[in-house]
Design goal:
Shape: elongated
Protein name: MerR family transcriptional regulator
Organism: Staphylococcus casei
Pfam family, one: MerR_1
Keywords: Coiled coil, DNA-binding, Membrane, Plasmid, Transmembrane, Transmembrane helix
InterPro entries: DNA-bd_dom_put_sf, MerR-type_HTH_dom, MerR_fam
Number of strands: 7
Length: 240
């Protein structure tokens, strides 16, 4: 039967001798016996137990749970229950960590590489991010107005085809244009933009705003404070 000293066993499993000594102290993995020189001696039986401990540790079981599993009559049902709880806990932890990661990415996207704004501007960025959590409400309202205009125009086209007259189409076109104007005005009046370089919040001129290149969250504008052109971050205007 093969026997192993602490150092030999640690080397085989790429762990430290201190880890094996700690497992011994906690009663999780005791040596088979001590030799005449008071060295810990492990046999194949302890090797098998150590393999199981490492598997459980890789699944992030804590030593308390491992001790219960190793030194009792627990079966695979116990593993199933413990894993079920661990999976739930880890999923919740990962979800929270993902939110933090997304938050860091969002903050980073609001700061240009050449920005020399004071660190206190981070509070303004946080304020913008907090407000932008409700920006979907604005988009929903705009979508409803735009959808209404499209619906009116489709009805007008259908009626024009049915009665072979341009008049319903012209009326629907005027009404749809009014909806488009209302939607654009509401959109423009509801938003401000933050420069990612100096973090100054401003309202651009309407024509420049309409013609500016944009993404779903930014619009390429000239900042009136630092006079640099960037994809400025869109945010909800404070209600008065």
């Amino acid at each position: 039967m093969s026997i192993y000293l602490t150092g030999e066993l640690a080397k085989i499993f790429s762990i430290t001798t201190r880890t094996l000594q700690y497992y011994d102290k906690k009663g999780i993995l005791k040596p088979a016996y001590f030799n005449d020189n008071n060295y810990r001696i492990y046999t194949e039986k302890e090797v098998e137990k150590l393999k199981l401990i490492i598997v459980l540790r890789n699944m992030k079981f804590n030593l308390k749970d491992i001790d219960k599993l190793m030194n009792s009559e627990k079966d695979m049902k116990a593993i199933h229950l413990l894993l079920d709880q661990k999976i739930k806990d880890d999923e919740q932890r990962i979800e929270e960590e993902q939110k933090k990661l997304n938050n860091m990415k969002n903050i980073k996207s609001m700061i240009s590489e050449t920005s020399n704004s004071p660190i206190q501007k981070l509070l303004d960025i946080e304020d913008v991010m907090h407000k932008n959590k409700s920006i979907s409400r604005l988009y929903k309202k705009l979508f409803l107005i735009g959808g209404l205009g499209t619906f009116i125009q489709l009805i007008g086209i259908s009626i024009s085809f049915a009665i072979k007259s341009y008049f319903p189409f012209l009326i629907s076109f005027v009404l749809a244009s009014i909806c488009a104007i209302i939607m654009t005005s509401k959109y423009f009046n509801s938003v401000l933009y933050m420069c990612p370089n100096c973090h100054f919040k401003f309202k651009p001129r309407k024509l420049k705003w309409m013609l500016a290149a944009h993404t779903p969250k930014t619009r390429k504008l000239n900042c009136p404070n630092c006079n640099e052109k960037h994809h400025c971050i869109e945010t909800i205007k404070n209600r008065t």
